[in-house]
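Practice problem: predict the structure.
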Amino acid sequence: MPVTKSVCPSCGAEIRQGMLRCRECGRPRGTVSSATNAASKNSVSIKRSSKTIPPSKPHSRTPDNVSSESSPRPKAVVKPQERRKTVVSTSRATAQRRQRPQPQQPWYRSMVVLVAAAFLCCATAITFAMSFQQKRLAPVEVLADEIVLTPDRAAAIWVVDNYGVVTVEMESGTELKFVAREHLPSEPFRIVAIDLWHQHIEGSELIFLRDLAHLRSLDLSHSGIADEHMHLIGQATNLNRLALRGGKVTAEGYRQLPLNLNMTNFTASANKEFTDESISVLAERMPNLRLFLCASTQVTDKGFAQLSTLPNLRDVRVQKTEVSDEAIEALKEQLPRCKVTK
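Answer:
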């Protein structure tokens, strides 16, 4: 089979079969002249159309002597740089689409929510205040028709309305504690203990104590009791426990208490007005004391020595006072069964 050879018209170099350009000057083969006759050229070109040209460098143009219908077109090759640019542009478009700002709600919607929340809070506060006021100022006379308002029941209602704790004794002998008027039993009862710890009250309202014949324990610690209220406390003649922590009662106030042979426990701690003179008065008014607490007071050795006149004393606590160790040892010698804590 004859071999088609061509000569480059520009440089005269030989262009062999399969070469698309001149090696010397790079001119395309379509512009060169044929070195063989036309018949052999046509026969060769027809046979070449069925053969696959070995791949060489990709070219954008097809030679003139090879028909576009018979020769396969080279595949488009994407350079790595172009591929990277395409990926980057796609990722940027995706990121921009994700970061696209969401449509904002109208400003008046937030204002409506805030106004509604404020209105709800105000309504809740007003409802709570009204219920609190009604509970505190509810009249004592609001009772069922079949319940008799005795002095003990009236005193119990006053105590729980002032956020105290009242202990009552039923006819069966059972003792129960109550903190709300609606929980008080409908059956008759007797008050045996009142606890108003840290509840500020008007001392003049304690006039009901004279009607409580069975009251045995009274705790008025940190409730604002002063000397002018002690005569009302003295009307409860059956007390055996009295607590006046943190009060402002002086020796003059304790002189208003009558002689009480039933008193066994007395507490006057955290009272800066409690002095040696106060101990002297209490030793006369409460000769059967068994428990005496006077921590954080102005008691000294002089007043502490007067406790030796109480033969039934079993427990004394004088923390944070000016009582010395020598005075404590002297009291222990006189009262061997008494325990002193300092």
